[in-house]
Amino acid sequence: MRSSLPDVRTFGKVAVLFGGRSSEREVSLRSGKAVLEALQRSGVDAHGVDGIGDFLLTLKSQGFARVWNAMHGRGGEDGQVQGALQLLGIPCTGSGVAASALAMDKMRSKQLWMGIGLPTPNFQVVSADMVESEQGARAIFARLGPIVMVKPSNEGSSVGMAKVDSIEGLRNAVTAATEFDRTVIVERFIRGPEFTVGIVGDEVLPSISMSTPRDFYDYQAKYHSTTTIYNCPSGLDERDEQQLRELAKWAYDSLGCKGWSRVDVMRDEASKEFFVLEVNTVPGMTETSLVPKAAKVAGMSFEELCLRILQSAM
Asked: Is 280 a known ligand-binding residue?
């Protein structure tokens, strides 16, 4: 059940925090610009702040009452800025320190999910040394399957990810992933459709299905390709849609998330089982991003969506 929105004057002076120094800076700048313009159209006293340099001093000295955090990736999505703002006493949209850090860390979030019985693809933490020998690389394929996904544990937007099916490909992908993070995971590849589920407050939005002619739904497919297809509603029948929404909410709640998030899920084409990949606590927020697409189907305008997320910082 949606609660009514307060008078926008009660939000006070709002900083829309975007940019930063992460590998997702470009996307964050676009998200922040869209959110800032939507809040200003709604009458909010909103101002853009780039998360570089002495931005914390800016937030404190210029009297901002709360922060709409659109800073993706490291620094903005992993608990760092959440902790700093908590110390400064400035409310911030989205999840807190612990939930943000857990969600950003694929290894630890998956360990938690396996511990509570939530379905997520099997995985292994690896290093470049482990895959250097043929025996070590073969052992990984023997455990996880003939096709695997290599992922930096603490990156978003599919940065540093690769789908591989050969020893040489595995070595190259692990080496490339270590350029982004010291912790690299190799995950069983789930063959089947990919879904994403947005959550705003306690409302689980309609699921979206994605398809791309590329190897997988990578950075190019997400942000630059004109051939990626999105369906919302996703085409699932009512029972499967309900199962997917419940699974997404379980993943969200298990990490302690609040405010809003987007949960990415794969469905095995053979078993029809859903597997949670990750939870994004600061997902993309351009007007063509996935959470706004689902919100629109649920009857929520982009401006209302931005205001409801801002409300979580109260």
From this structure: yes
Q: Is there a catalytic annotation at residue 304?
A: no
Q: What is the mean pLDDT of residues 42-64?
A: 97
Q: How many domains does the chain have?
A: 3
Domain boundary among 141, 173, 188: 188
Residue 218, marked binder: no
Q: Which amino acid is at 210?
A: M
Question: 184 in a domain, yes or no?
Answer: yes
Return the exposure string of 153-187: e unless at least 16 CB atoms fall within 10 Å of the residue's CB, then b.
bbbbbbbbbbebeebebbbebbebbbebbebbbbb
Selected catalytic residue, list 22, 24, 95, 109:
24
One domain, residues 209 and 181: no
Residue 7, marked binder: no
Q: For residue 207, give the DSSP letter.
A: P
In this prediction, residues 197-209 reach a mean pLDDT of 96
In CATH, what number is assigned to the domain containing residue 171? 3.30.1490.20
283 and 208 share one domain: yes
Amino acid at position 195, single letter: F
Is the pTM value of this prediction over 0.70?
yes
| 289 flagged as catalytic | yes
Q: Which of 157, 209, 254, 312 is catalytic?
A: 157
Catalytic-labelled residue, pool 109, 234, 254, 289 = 289
Active site residue 157: yes
Shared domain check, 208 and 184: no
Q: Assess whether pLDDT exceeds 60 at residue 218.
A: no
| Mean pLDDT within 251-255 | 98
